[in-house]
Amino acid sequence: MNKSDKDCLLGYIAHYVSPQRAYYGGILITDARGVPKEFRHSEGVRPSRVQSTLYGESLEESLGTDALAPALLGSVTIKPEILLIDKESRLLFGQFAHANAPAALLVPLADPDLAFADMLGVDGSLLDARDYDLKGSTSERVYAYIQDRSDNVGARILETAQKRMNLMSPFLRIRTVLAEIAQVEMGRAAK
Amino acid sequence: MNDQIPSTLTHRRGIRASLLRALPRVWPKAPHTAEILVPALHIPRTSKFDIGMSALLADKTFQAFWSPPTVQTLITWEVVCGGSLVNAFGVRIYGVRYRNTNDSENDSMDEVPAPNPDGQLGIPGLGGTKRFSGSEHAKSSPGNKYSHLYTLLYPPPEDFAATHMPEFSKLRDYQRVGVEFLVSREHALLADDMGLGKTAQCSIATHVLLRSERIRRALIICPRALVRQWEREAKHWANLIARPVEGTPLHRKRMWESFPGAIIATPQIVLNDIDVISKSHFDLVVCDDVSMLKNPGKITNAIRRIPRSRSWCLSGTPLENKPEDFANVMQFVKPDLFSGVERGSAPNHVELQARVKPFFLRRRKIDCLEELPPKQLIGPDELQMEGPQRETYRNTEAQQWQQLQALGVNTTKLHVFALMNLLLKVCNYDEISGRSAKADAVRDKLDNLFDNDDPSIKMVVFSHRVDTLHFLQREWSAYQPRIYHGGLSTREREELLHWFKKGSGRLLLISTKAGSRGLNLQEASYVFHFDRTWNPVDEMQAEDRCWRMGQNRKVFVYRYLQLDTIEERVDRALRFKKGQFDTYVDSMAEDTDALAVTKWSLDELIALMKPSDKK
User: Fold this and answer.
1) Is B89 in contact with A165 (Cβ distance < 8 A)?
2) ipTM for the complex shown
3) Which residue of A has its CA nearest to B85?
4) What are the Cα distances from residue B311, in Å, to B221, B274, B295, B441, B539?
5) How many CB pairs lie under 8 A apart between chains A and B?
6) Residue B315 and residue B326: Cα distance in Å, rounded?
7) Which residue has the higher pLDDT, B594 or B184?
């Protein structure tokens, strides 16, 4: 039985770093029209000096892969059928997303930093790269580098969703909310 | 070669190198008491090694992961010093599960239970905490300090518009702002000038909320004359099907109880069915035209009683007579914004402004519609009654004044108004002689307009007296005018408007009370106010039926008054009051600095009645 558009569930994961270097992660589950179904986010995680020293340049990757992403995905009560990340969060969530196929990295076609390396999966294999419509934009399209399952369910969900929603806009909305949350926390801390 | 190392291994190698470099600096005094626990998938048990052995361990680990290098070789590790974990990140999770308005099973999900109540992440080796505090999107749960931000996650209106509302792209920038304003507020008063498209903005905002499942049931309350127009505009602008509530009581009961989507009802229907309505619930109630809300009465109370989550009001003239009207309107929009005492005697303008501001949006035509042709106010043309009409007026005036004096201290405003109406009627036309100076003056204008070869020039004449309209219909029968008044059925009104807007009709006589609000008559560019209304807002509303978005001709507005009569005295008083009103209304966009009390006192009314010395 075919699912309706509304039944497809997309899981957007993104992060925001506040000026105080606190890391906020968020996961937004939407249907194929972009209507939110569930949202989970972390409070700001501010690595200590010891942690920054211990992790060095791998700090963000470890924080995202080992702490934020599992906590976020583990907390949602509605499980997404595909995980989506964008380039800004690739360092934090890339490994986690690819380990949880189907998943895709979405990159606007006009992105000048579009690199061949983006097309590589964590095991070095070439990912399935497809381009989709970007609703609300007359010319732009979006590339998806998909770590899919053998039944190509990830590609099919994106195919459906591209007709009903702007595939990139949830990332912006998540970051907007995370930035607001950071503001709230900062205001609270100031008191 | 290094470039081809998969990122997982590069990452892990980075950790190892960083770790080895860092540990002696982090714990220079206790290198041998620190432990590194490596519960890796490739190592079947958790092993402990001292710092001195960590380099060796790391090399072995690295080699173990190197072949085969797959993503499943992720390791997690801990650094414990003196019994405390120092490398793990504490992660506290908050969030929301949105109420799907089509999915009743979610309605009770106010709090999302933590699947792991001990507060630990389900990943071995990480000591982060995981705590939940859930709330529904519109409800502020005491446990979640961020719940007010979650509405920002809904897609913006244009996301829905691209697929569902083709007309959205035709909205002007200020209208898009208006849609955003409504969508993002539970309590809103959209007070744009008449003709700026409040119905379009509201239709689109309503449909966006329905589409995004933020609301399931919406009720639009508007005067009977506007029901079909609302139905049409909602369909046109927002592709929104809004069903009028009508039919038998049983049929209406079913609609009130269970009809999903948007429905339209008149204030009278709401009053009749309030017992049924009050047992139901609406996610959104829109009041188009605030006149039904400004005076506490049965209809106002019925509308306020409707159980609802969101309350919006649309009005180009939110204040008609006095600041208390405004406080009463806000009692629907945002209950308890003003106390009962304040609704009887409004607070000062600074206080009022501060309280209303978050819920209020007003834009002026002059700022938004630069391309709108101007509106030219002409007159009032001062006329002099002659002959029999003058004689009838003087006789009536003398009789009424005597009656008023006879009443003495028992005089009430109702008495004065009743007597005054008789005089105003004679100012319009003399029933005995059939003479009317005003009708003659307007006819001169009409003759010129009808002589013009352009049949697209259309005219409307407003009078607040239906008997006057019938008189004019007889007088001007050569032009085949028709009358729009409150006694027409919905179907008759529709047919009449179609005749005027799309058909051969060129002259429409309109009862000010029935037709001054909500109608769109951009087809007409000549407006005649045959008589003056008591409320200056009515006149502004009436002429703006024609002077609105979509009008591509200059609009001419003519006014008339009979010299040396009560009309002249009323006009003088109205000019003063309207001046105050303009200051107030225009300032509403930025300021409420000029609250005008435009109530008529008994003394003022009696002064208006006093006969002129001129005979």
Assistant:
1) no
2) 0.89
3) A51
4) 11, 17, 18, 47, 28
5) 181
6) 11
7) B184
